[in-house]
Write a structure and sequence with these properties.
By secondary structure, the chain is mainly alpha-helical. It has one domain (6-51, 58-277). Helices cover 70% and strands 0% of the residues. The longest helix is centred in the first third of the chain and has 35 residues, at 64-98.
Length: 284
Protein backbone atom coordinates (compact mmCIF):
# COMPACT_ATOMS: atom_id res chain seq x y z
CA UNK A 1 0.00 0.00 0.00
CA UNK A 2 1.38 3.39 -0.94
CA UNK A 3 2.19 5.79 1.85
CA UNK A 4 0.35 9.14 1.57
CA UNK A 5 2.28 12.36 1.21
CA UNK A 6 2.71 13.72 4.72
CA UNK A 7 2.74 17.29 3.48
CA UNK A 8 -0.53 16.79 1.63
CA UNK A 9 -2.10 15.19 4.69
CA UNK A 10 -0.97 18.07 6.89
CA UNK A 11 -2.30 20.63 4.40
CA UNK A 12 -5.63 18.81 4.40
CA UNK A 13 -5.72 18.93 8.20
CA UNK A 14 -4.88 22.65 8.13
CA UNK A 15 -7.54 23.39 5.49
CA UNK A 16 -10.24 21.48 7.37
CA UNK A 17 -9.30 23.26 10.58
CA UNK A 18 -9.58 26.63 8.86
CA UNK A 19 -13.02 25.72 7.47
CA UNK A 20 -14.15 24.66 10.94
CA UNK A 21 -12.84 27.86 12.54
CA UNK A 22 -14.45 30.05 9.90
CA UNK A 23 -17.79 28.31 10.47
CA UNK A 24 -17.82 29.99 13.88
CA UNK A 25 -16.19 33.31 13.04
CA UNK A 26 -17.26 35.19 16.15
CA UNK A 27 -15.75 32.48 18.35
CA UNK A 28 -12.57 32.65 16.25
CA UNK A 29 -12.38 36.43 16.66
CA UNK A 30 -13.00 36.23 20.41
CA UNK A 31 -10.25 33.64 20.78
CA UNK A 32 -7.84 35.91 18.90
CA UNK A 33 -8.80 38.87 21.10
CA UNK A 34 -8.43 36.78 24.25
CA UNK A 35 -4.98 35.60 23.20
CA UNK A 36 -3.84 39.11 22.26
CA UNK A 37 -5.23 40.53 25.51
CA UNK A 38 -3.11 38.14 27.55
CA UNK A 39 -0.02 39.17 25.57
CA UNK A 40 -0.87 42.87 25.99
CA UNK A 41 -1.14 42.47 29.77
CA UNK A 42 2.16 40.59 29.79
CA UNK A 43 3.76 43.39 27.80
CA UNK A 44 2.30 46.04 30.12
CA UNK A 45 3.64 44.26 33.20
CA UNK A 46 7.22 44.35 31.94
CA UNK A 47 6.89 47.94 30.75
CA UNK A 48 6.03 48.81 34.34
CA UNK A 49 9.01 46.81 35.61
CA UNK A 50 11.35 48.68 33.27
CA UNK A 51 10.20 51.98 34.71
CA UNK A 52 12.03 50.96 37.89
CA UNK A 53 14.91 48.90 36.51
CA UNK A 54 17.40 49.09 33.66
CA UNK A 55 17.56 45.31 33.15
CA UNK A 56 16.03 42.02 34.19
CA UNK A 57 18.59 40.71 36.66
CA UNK A 58 21.78 42.45 37.72
CA UNK A 59 24.32 42.95 34.96
CA UNK A 60 22.66 40.37 32.72
CA UNK A 61 22.63 42.53 29.60
CA UNK A 62 18.88 42.10 29.18
CA UNK A 63 17.91 45.74 28.93
CA UNK A 64 14.46 46.84 27.82
CA UNK A 65 14.93 46.41 24.07
CA UNK A 66 16.79 43.11 24.43
CA UNK A 67 14.20 41.71 26.82
CA UNK A 68 11.24 42.57 24.62
CA UNK A 69 12.96 40.76 21.75
CA UNK A 70 13.17 37.82 24.16
CA UNK A 71 9.49 38.24 25.09
CA UNK A 72 8.45 38.37 21.44
CA UNK A 73 10.36 35.13 20.89
CA UNK A 74 8.45 33.48 23.74
CA UNK A 75 5.16 34.58 22.19
CA UNK A 76 6.14 33.12 18.81
CA UNK A 77 7.19 29.74 20.21
CA UNK A 78 4.15 29.51 22.51
CA UNK A 79 1.90 30.46 19.63
CA UNK A 80 3.32 27.75 17.37
CA UNK A 81 2.93 25.13 20.10
CA UNK A 82 -0.65 26.15 20.88
CA UNK A 83 -1.55 26.38 17.19
CA UNK A 84 -0.26 23.02 16.07
CA UNK A 85 0.19 20.75 19.08
CA UNK A 86 -1.61 21.66 22.32
CA UNK A 87 -5.15 20.67 21.28
CA UNK A 88 -3.87 17.50 19.61
CA UNK A 89 -1.92 16.41 22.70
CA UNK A 90 -5.04 16.89 24.81
CA UNK A 91 -7.16 14.99 22.29
CA UNK A 92 -4.65 12.12 22.32
CA UNK A 93 -5.59 11.41 25.93
CA UNK A 94 -9.26 11.25 24.94
CA UNK A 95 -8.47 8.94 22.00
CA UNK A 96 -6.91 6.48 24.43
CA UNK A 97 -9.79 6.69 26.90
CA UNK A 98 -12.50 6.26 24.27
CA UNK A 99 -10.65 3.71 22.13
CA UNK A 100 -10.49 5.97 19.08
CA UNK A 101 -6.75 5.37 18.96
CA UNK A 102 -7.65 2.01 17.40
CA UNK A 103 -8.70 3.80 14.22
CA UNK A 104 -5.48 5.84 14.12
CA UNK A 105 -3.42 2.65 14.40
CA UNK A 106 -5.23 1.17 11.40
CA UNK A 107 -4.41 4.11 9.11
CA UNK A 108 -1.58 3.64 6.55
CA UNK A 109 0.36 6.54 8.03
CA UNK A 110 2.69 7.08 10.96
CA UNK A 111 0.62 7.11 14.17
CA UNK A 112 2.64 9.82 15.90
CA UNK A 113 2.21 12.10 12.92
CA UNK A 114 -1.51 11.34 12.79
CA UNK A 115 -2.13 12.19 16.46
CA UNK A 116 0.17 15.23 16.41
CA UNK A 117 -1.35 17.27 13.56
CA UNK A 118 -5.07 16.59 12.91
CA UNK A 119 -6.22 19.90 14.35
CA UNK A 120 -4.73 23.35 13.75
CA UNK A 121 -5.92 26.05 16.13
CA UNK A 122 -5.52 29.03 13.81
CA UNK A 123 -6.67 31.64 16.34
CA UNK A 124 -3.53 31.07 18.41
CA UNK A 125 -1.32 32.40 15.59
CA UNK A 126 -2.37 35.93 16.56
CA UNK A 127 0.32 36.02 19.25
CA UNK A 128 2.98 34.98 16.73
CA UNK A 129 2.19 37.99 14.54
CA UNK A 130 2.24 40.24 17.60
CA UNK A 131 5.58 38.74 18.63
CA UNK A 132 7.05 39.47 15.19
CA UNK A 133 5.82 43.07 15.38
CA UNK A 134 7.34 43.58 18.84
CA UNK A 135 10.65 42.07 17.74
CA UNK A 136 10.85 44.29 14.64
CA UNK A 137 10.12 47.42 16.70
CA UNK A 138 12.69 46.71 19.43
CA UNK A 139 15.29 45.43 16.99
CA UNK A 140 14.96 48.78 15.21
CA UNK A 141 15.45 50.49 18.58
CA UNK A 142 18.62 48.48 19.22
CA UNK A 143 20.07 49.09 15.78
CA UNK A 144 19.56 52.84 16.16
CA UNK A 145 20.91 53.03 19.70
CA UNK A 146 24.47 54.48 19.48
CA UNK A 147 25.35 52.97 22.88
CA UNK A 148 24.76 49.45 21.55
CA UNK A 149 27.36 47.75 19.38
CA UNK A 150 25.20 45.70 17.07
CA UNK A 151 26.59 43.55 14.28
CA UNK A 152 23.38 42.60 12.48
CA UNK A 153 24.23 40.51 9.41
CA UNK A 154 22.32 38.84 6.59
CA UNK A 155 22.56 35.58 8.53
CA UNK A 156 20.88 36.87 11.67
CA UNK A 157 17.27 36.40 10.54
CA UNK A 158 17.77 32.90 8.99
CA UNK A 159 19.66 31.86 12.13
CA UNK A 160 16.86 33.22 14.31
CA UNK A 161 14.21 31.29 12.34
CA UNK A 162 16.31 28.12 12.56
CA UNK A 163 16.70 28.35 16.33
CA UNK A 164 13.01 29.16 16.81
CA UNK A 165 12.35 25.96 14.86
CA UNK A 166 14.76 24.06 17.15
CA UNK A 167 13.00 25.49 20.19
CA UNK A 168 9.59 24.51 18.84
CA UNK A 169 10.84 20.96 18.24
CA UNK A 170 12.07 20.72 21.84
CA UNK A 171 8.76 21.96 23.24
CA UNK A 172 6.78 19.62 20.97
CA UNK A 173 8.94 16.72 22.15
CA UNK A 174 8.27 17.55 25.79
CA UNK A 175 4.54 17.80 25.09
CA UNK A 176 4.21 14.55 23.12
CA UNK A 177 6.25 12.75 25.79
CA UNK A 178 3.88 13.98 28.49
CA UNK A 179 0.88 13.07 26.34
CA UNK A 180 2.28 9.55 25.76
CA UNK A 181 2.05 8.84 29.49
CA UNK A 182 -1.74 8.78 28.99
CA UNK A 183 -1.35 5.25 27.63
CA UNK A 184 -0.05 4.09 31.01
CA UNK A 185 -2.25 6.35 33.12
CA UNK A 186 -5.44 5.82 31.15
CA UNK A 187 -6.29 9.50 31.20
CA UNK A 188 -3.77 12.27 31.77
CA UNK A 189 -5.95 15.14 32.94
CA UNK A 190 -2.96 17.03 34.32
CA UNK A 191 -1.24 17.61 30.96
CA UNK A 192 -1.97 21.34 30.97
CA UNK A 193 -0.82 21.63 34.58
CA UNK A 194 2.47 19.84 33.90
CA UNK A 195 2.95 21.93 30.79
CA UNK A 196 2.36 25.17 32.67
CA UNK A 197 4.74 24.24 35.50
CA UNK A 198 7.53 23.27 33.13
CA UNK A 199 7.19 26.13 30.66
CA UNK A 200 6.84 28.75 33.40
CA UNK A 201 10.63 28.63 33.82
CA UNK A 202 11.59 29.30 30.20
CA UNK A 203 9.72 32.61 30.04
CA UNK A 204 12.70 34.48 31.50
CA UNK A 205 16.39 34.87 30.57
CA UNK A 206 18.48 32.07 32.02
CA UNK A 207 20.80 34.54 33.77
CA UNK A 208 18.18 35.33 36.43
CA UNK A 209 18.57 31.79 37.81
CA UNK A 210 22.32 32.13 38.35
CA UNK A 211 22.05 32.88 42.05
CA UNK A 212 21.47 30.75 45.17
CA UNK A 213 18.86 28.01 44.76
CA UNK A 214 18.26 29.24 41.23
CA UNK A 215 21.38 27.33 40.13
CA UNK A 216 19.46 24.06 40.62
CA UNK A 217 16.74 25.30 38.27
CA UNK A 218 19.35 26.61 35.84
CA UNK A 219 21.09 23.23 35.68
CA UNK A 220 17.88 21.20 35.44
CA UNK A 221 16.28 23.26 32.69
CA UNK A 222 19.50 23.78 30.74
CA UNK A 223 20.94 20.25 30.67
CA UNK A 224 18.22 17.80 31.79
CA UNK A 225 15.06 19.28 30.28
CA UNK A 226 16.69 21.94 28.05
CA UNK A 227 13.79 24.37 27.85
CA UNK A 228 15.91 27.39 28.84
CA UNK A 229 17.88 26.86 25.65
CA UNK A 230 14.60 27.03 23.69
CA UNK A 231 13.98 30.72 24.26
CA UNK A 232 17.41 32.07 25.13
CA UNK A 233 19.30 31.03 22.00
CA UNK A 234 17.02 32.58 19.32
CA UNK A 235 16.62 35.75 21.39
CA UNK A 236 20.40 36.04 21.64
CA UNK A 237 20.71 35.73 17.87
CA UNK A 238 18.90 39.06 17.45
CA UNK A 239 19.68 40.84 20.73
CA UNK A 240 23.35 39.81 20.49
CA UNK A 241 23.67 39.00 16.78
CA UNK A 242 25.38 35.87 15.54
CA UNK A 243 28.98 36.70 14.76
CA UNK A 244 28.88 39.89 16.83
CA UNK A 245 29.11 39.82 20.61
CA UNK A 246 28.95 36.05 20.96
CA UNK A 247 31.49 34.28 23.13
CA UNK A 248 32.30 30.63 23.80
CA UNK A 249 29.25 30.14 26.07
CA UNK A 250 26.88 31.58 23.46
CA UNK A 251 28.19 29.24 20.80
CA UNK A 252 27.95 26.35 23.27
CA UNK A 253 24.30 27.22 23.87
CA UNK A 254 23.66 27.37 20.13
CA UNK A 255 25.18 23.91 19.70
CA UNK A 256 23.12 22.66 22.64
CA UNK A 257 19.96 23.98 20.97
CA UNK A 258 20.58 21.85 17.88
CA UNK A 259 21.56 18.78 19.92
CA UNK A 260 18.57 19.28 22.24
CA UNK A 261 16.17 19.47 19.28
CA UNK A 262 17.49 16.27 17.71
CA UNK A 263 17.89 14.44 21.02
CA UNK A 264 14.52 15.39 22.47
CA UNK A 265 12.74 14.45 19.24
CA UNK A 266 14.43 11.04 19.28
CA UNK A 267 13.55 10.50 22.97
CA UNK A 268 9.92 11.53 22.44
CA UNK A 269 9.71 9.16 19.47
CA UNK A 270 11.12 6.33 21.57
CA UNK A 271 8.74 7.03 24.49
CA UNK A 272 5.78 7.20 22.12
CA UNK A 273 6.60 3.87 20.48
CA UNK A 274 7.26 2.16 23.81
CA UNK A 275 3.97 3.52 25.16
CA UNK A 276 2.09 2.23 22.10
CA UNK A 277 3.32 -1.27 22.87
CA UNK A 278 1.48 -1.02 26.19
CA UNK A 279 -1.75 0.14 24.57
CA UNK A 280 -4.72 -2.20 24.86
CA UNK A 281 -7.35 -1.50 22.25
CA UNK A 282 -11.00 -0.91 23.08
CA UNK A 283 -11.82 -4.36 21.73
CA UNK A 284 -9.40 -6.17 24.04
Amino acid sequence: MLQPSYLNVFLTFAKNSMIRDMSFRMNFILQCISSLSWAAMNYGLFKIIYQFSDSIGRQTGWGESEFFIFLGTIWIINSLIQTFFMANATEFSEMIRTGNLDFALLKPIDTQFLVSFPRVNWSQLANAFLGVAVIIFYLHELLNDPSKKMDFTMWSVPAYIFFVFCGTVVMYSVMITLASTSIWMGRNQNLHNFWFYITNFYRYPMEIYERGIGWALWGTFTFVVPILVVSNVPARVLAQPLGGNWGLWDWTLATMAVVAAAGSLWISRWVFRVALKSYRSASS
